[in-house]
């Protein structure tokens, strides 16, 4: 009986991780992500991404998430967005992005 309950709890926990969620923040290049003053700086984020620094999502609390689909987020460099997707570790699998 205990094994059945443990298995059910494990499956329930894993299924909630697999569900899509919304993540709000700014699309910024990884190099400047730790600098709070860069949030909302479209010119800097665009230039750094063109220079090769990958885009990340930075929340108002300063949490930095990697983004798996750069093509969906690079056009929104420096802007505040809502990313819908699935979290795996510190990477979001991007389903959609909106301003």
Can you put this structure into words, describing what you see?
The structure is a single chain. Helix content is 30%, strand content 34%. It is of the alpha+beta class and 99 residues long. It has one domain (20-98). The protein is globular. The relative contact order is 0.22.
Would you kindly provide a brief summary of this structure?
It contains three helices and five strands, in the order H-E-H-E-E-H-E-E. The protein is an alpha+beta fold. Strands 1-2-3-5-4 form a five-stranded mixed β-barrel.
Percent range for β-strand residues: 25-35%
Q: What composes the largest sheet? A: 5 strands, mixed, barrel
Structural domains: how many = 1
Structural class: alpha+beta
Q: Unreliable segments (pLDDT under 50, ≥5 consecutive)?
A: none
SSE layout and pairing:
Elements: H1 2-18, E1 21-29, H2 42-50, E2 55-58, E3 64-67, H3 70-73, E4 80-88, E5 91-98
Parallel strand pairs: 3-5
Antiparallel strand pairs: 1-2, 1-4, 2-3, 4-5
């Amino acid at each position: 009986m205990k094994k059945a309950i443990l298995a059910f709890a494990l499956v329930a926990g894993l299924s909630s991780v697999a569900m899509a969620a919304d993540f709000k923040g700014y699309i910024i290049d990884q190099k400047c992500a730790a600098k709070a003053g860069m949030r909302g700086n479209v010119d800097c984020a665009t230039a750094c991404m063109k220079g090769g620094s990958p885009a990340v999502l930075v929340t108002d609390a300063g949490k930095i998430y990697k983004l798996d689909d750069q093509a969906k987020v690079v056009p929104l460099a420096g802007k505040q967005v809502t990313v819908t997707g699935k979290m795996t570790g510190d990477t979001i699998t991007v389903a959609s992005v909106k301003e």
